[in-house]
Amino acid sequence: MTLLNVTEHYLLFELSGRQKEILERLLGKYPVANSRFNSISRTVDESELEEEQNMLDEALAETRKENRRQIGNFLREPGRFAEQEDGWHMKIRPVQVAWLLQVFNEIRVGYWHELGCPEEEDAKLTAETAEKIFFMELCAHFQMVLISAAETT
């Protein structure tokens, strides 16, 4: 994914057909995380904060539901993708960059939690973990492209 142009209304990216497919597949994975990976406290006994934890879980579930709806709208929005001879052009409004960064980060962190929160040197590449590690790295790639593009605006 390469940034082609920036205007006050949109950022224009070029994607290969494969990159577009990967982008859609990654966004389709949202949300990866289970509802309890966000703990309200790591130092206090969970039973003491059960009500607060339940409120956090409900708020996060609602946010994930809304993000899921927005992802569908984002991918289906007319004019979002334009097929080109050698791939695709994708337009993103500047206000959508931070939201996409958040979504990719939640996908990435969700897989990291599914892997047991390993440190980089402790991540074991096996047949069972390869796809999750690969998706984490793809999310990181898209995040870096978006951050780089945001810095040019």
Task: Provide an overview of this structure.
This protein has 153 residues and is of the alpha+beta class. It contains four helices and four strands, in the order E-E-H-H-E-E-H-H. A four-stranded antiparallel sheet has the order 1-2-4-3. Helix 3 packs antiparallel against helix 4. The longest helix is centred in the middle third of the chain and has 27 residues. The two termini are 17 Å apart.
Describe this protein with a few key phrases.
4 helices; four-stranded antiparallel β-sheet; single chain; 4 strands; 153 residues; globular; alpha+beta
Order of helices and strands: EEHHEEHH
The gross shape turns out to be globular
Share of residues in helices: 40-55%
Structural class by secondary-structure content: alpha+beta
Mean pLDDT: 90
End-to-end separation: 17 Å
Flag low-confidence runs.
none
Amount of beta strand: 5-15%
Biggest sheet architecture: 4 strands, antiparallel
Rg measurement, Å:
18 Å
Concise summary:
The protein has 153 residues and is α+β, with helices and mostly antiparallel strands. It is built from four helices and four strands.
